[in-house]
Specification:
This protein is α+β, with helices and mostly antiparallel strands. The chain is built from 17 helices and 4 strands. Strands 2-3-1-4 form a 4-stranded antiparallel β-sheet. Strand 2 and strand 3 form a beta hairpin. The chain is globular, with a radius of gyration of 27 Å. InterPro entries: MFS_dom, MFS_trans_sf, TM_effector. This is MFS transporter. It comes from Nocardia pulmonis. It is a multi-pass membrane protein.
């Protein structure tokens, strides 16, 4: 029922693709610019009244749009041309960053203007993220997707570790204006690469899905995909406690270790170094360990780094521990991200990744808030110890909640025959009831029912709102499968776009337990007729 596992390849293998290499370099520069922008924005606010609140709002302004718009942006990335969507979003971000540069240079910047522009940049980031991740399988071979995910995570972590250091140096030398200008230029670099990329056209006769229906279909897909739900659960189990170290590291650096801002930058740099090291060694680890064991190892290592932040007597010991923490962070995130990309078919990939992104961002945001409250009530050390204990439980939980080792075969496979019609329904006619009749010997009934449960999940993943298997009490060997689809157009999407080789495997298994030829009926609901009122004269 699953495709054979792909052999791990070198972490650097995706960079052999000219398009991927250009996009990765452009994104690395953009990640550096984004984190430089954060430092520059915070520096502008440090002398304002209520500086503590305003500085904290910088992160809120940039991350809140991602949480609010993650799923809608995933829907758009599946409905629109992803290349054009990325060009539009990155261009808009370049304009916002350019405006921020100009108003800062002219002295017209105010906290309100700054936070508004940062919020708009966050909207652009929200629109970019699902589409950006969804195009990765279009740029590299399937067996290179885990390596591409590792490179993507490395780019983000290098930006997070190195960007603030570069920004700190530039701000101290020439002020924040140049930092904002560099960020604007980084977006233009991404736009230039995207414009040069010629994405292959997709042949599809059907019109674009309606946004609300597309959202419902995407959520229905995830509900009917146990392997994806398991990855999302594992993400929550890791990110929730892991967020404690990121949230409380500034307090550890300043209050416990007595470090300056440059010392805090070194701690972030250690995490970045560990992430780069993790990316270079991940392919070797994948050859030795399953994804489940990789996630367990990552939880243990990040838990150890969290304990070190709480109790290590010197900054150098914390620094070394954070290198291993960065390694663990990249290992966990790239493993979960690559599994999501392997499990999601192209037609719903951005929607699925947007849900993963929401879980990731939400877990970090809620986790940071919770650990901040715990640290305020009981102390930073207690909060870090509790988080480390939960990471230990996260590692142990892989024993009974493993992720799928092999990937579903999501290769498109439009294998259903076209319906035989005497009446051509309108695209919006519906709901559509599809009935499939099977003849099953009594001795195969139990195996047939178990196999049909997998077929039922396939129908729901591809668009069925309801699914059920019935047994005909008038014929001992006859079973009837019934599923309902929203409209005739939606059912045609099942025929032409949404079926995969994995769905075909599920249906092929049914043939082992049936005799004769199955029969399929397509029924379109008749709209209710309003009764005509007649009035009698009194």
């Amino acid at each position: 029922m699953t495709a054979p596992p792909t052999a791990p390849v070198s972490t650097w293998a995706p960079l052999a693709s000219r398009v991927y290499r250009a996009l990765w370099i452009a994104q690395l520069v953009s990640n550096l610019g984004t984190w430089m922008q954060t430092v520059g924005a915070q520096w502008l606010l440090v002398d304002e009244r209520n500086a503590e609140t305003l500085v904290s709002l910088v992160q809120t302004a940039t991350t809140l749009p991602v949480m609010l718009l993650s799923i809608p942006s995933g829907v758009l990335a599946d409905l629109l041309d992803r290349r054009r969507l990325l060009i539009g979003a990155q261009s808009a971000m370049a304009v916002c960053a350019g405006v921020l540069t100009v108003v800062t240079a002219t002295g017209a910047i105010t906290p309100g203007v700054l936070l508004t522009l940062l919020f708009l940049l966050g909207v652009g980031q929200a629109m970019t993220a699902p589409a950006w991740q969804a195009i990765q399988p279009e740029l590299v071979a399937r067996n290179q997707i885990p390596a591409a995910a590792a490179l993507g995570s490395m780019s983000q972590n290098v930006g997070r570790a190195v960007g603030p250091a570069i920004a700190g140096a530039l701000v101290s030398l020439v002020g924040p204006t140049l930092v904002f200008a560099v960020n604007a230029a980084s977006f233009l670099g991404v736009v230039a690469v995207l414009v040069a990329w010629r994405r292959p056209a997709t042949d599809q006769d059907l019109p674009a899905e309606r946004p609300i229906a597309a959202l419902q279909t995407g959520l229905r897909f995830i509900r009917a995909a146990p392997a994806i739900r398991r990855v999302l659960v594992r993400s929550i189990l890791f990110i929730g406690p892991a967020s404690a170290l990121w949230a409380l590291l500034p307090v550890v650096a300043h209050a416990r270790l007595g470090l300056s801002s440059s010392g805090y930058g070194l701690l972030l740099g250690a995490l970045g170094v560990g992430a780069v090291g993790g990316a270079t060694q991940l392919a070797r680890l994948r050859r030795a360990l399953s994804p489940t064991r990789l996630l367990a190892l990552a939880a243990v290592l990040f838990g150890a780094a969290t304990v070190a932040a709480a109790v290590a007597p010197s900054a150098w010991m914390v620094l070394v521990a954070l290198v291993f923490g960065g390694f663990a962070w990249l290992t966990a995130l790239s493993t979960m991200n690559s599994i999501m990309q392997l499990l999601l078919p192209a037609w719903v990939r951005a929607r699925g990744l947007s849900v993963y992104q929401l879980v990731f961002m939400g877990g970090q945001a809620v986790g940071a808030l919770v650990w901040g409250v715990v640290a305020g009530a009981f102390g930073t050390a207690v909060a870090l110890w509790c988080a480390a204990a939960l990471l230990g439980l996260c590692a142990v939980s892989t024993l009974w909640l493993p992720v799928r080792v092999t990937a579903l075969d999501t290769t498109p496979a439009a294998y259903w025959p076209e319906p035989e019609l005497e009446i051509e329904p309108d695209p919006e006619d519906g709901p559509v009831l599809v009935l499939v009749t099977y003849h099953v010997p009594d001795e195969a009934a139990a195996d047939f029912a178990a196999a049909m449960a997998r077929v039922g999940r396939s129908r729901q993943r591809t668009g069925a709102m309801e699914w059920r298997l019935y047994r005909d009490v008038g014929a001992v060997d006859r079973y009837i499968e019934a599923f309902v689809v929203r409209s005739w157009e939606e059912h045609m999407r099942q025929h032409q776009v949404r079926l995969t080789a994995q769905d075909r495997l599920a249906e092929d298994e049914i043939e082992r337990y049936t005799t004769g030829v199955s029969r399929t009926l397509h029924l379109v609901a008749v709209p209710p007729v309003q009764p005509v009122r007649t009035w009698r004269r009194g």
